[in-house]
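Sample entry copied in:
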Amino acid sequence: MAGFTPPTRFAVPGRIAVNEQVAARWQTATLTQIRRETPRAATFRFAVPGWAGHLPGQHLLLRLTAEDGYVAQRHYSLASPPDDTGHVELTLDHVVDGEVSGWFHTVARPGDRVEVRGPLSGFFAWPGDRAALLVGAGSGVVPLMSMVRHHRARALAVPLRLVVSARGPEDLFYAGEYGAETTRVFTRSAPDGAPVGRLAAAHLAPLLAAPPPGGWEAYVCGSNSFAEHASRLLVAAGQPVDRIRVERFG
């Protein structure tokens, strides 16, 4: 799908500019905090003194090197807003047999150091200058939460809405941070009185029936099946195909 691609120097209005050469350099990140999000996911906070800033929606490349020289690299979306100067946050699921996520969830402790490079990717980035409709499931909400946090921290006037899907309340990342901008969808279990079911047209219809001036820029993130399903629902509800940006995994 077509989409806006920021120029070589990404910029958050009034805040930061990220040089592409800086983003290509490996930097040392020191783990400073681990916060439990769900029984299987946690947020890892790093101090990165040389971090040049990022746009909400971007990701970084993380590198672990074992004592025997074995190297493992993974791409992870940034959960932190750009205003969190000198720090970045990643929220990782504990993937069965995942060598990197497994290390973080079972071995990593504050003070450990890793290498990071970024920020990377401009396609899914949100500069904060247009109305944003965010749709995510599971760990797909991570880059979207960076957008929500940025929107709040900067008190941006542009509309922002989030539709987030999880199996149940215990699986919902950042459960304590959602406000009036968020629609929660639970697919297997839900709080008393709340419906259970897959993301449906009814969840999106109120947002697309009366879009803001200029329309929405839609950001969809989740598994392959969820991304396909959510994108089809958006198009069927009238969202232009060329204004849907998708990141998928699995």
Summary: The radius of gyration is 18 Å. Confidence is low (pLDDT under 50) at residues 1-17.
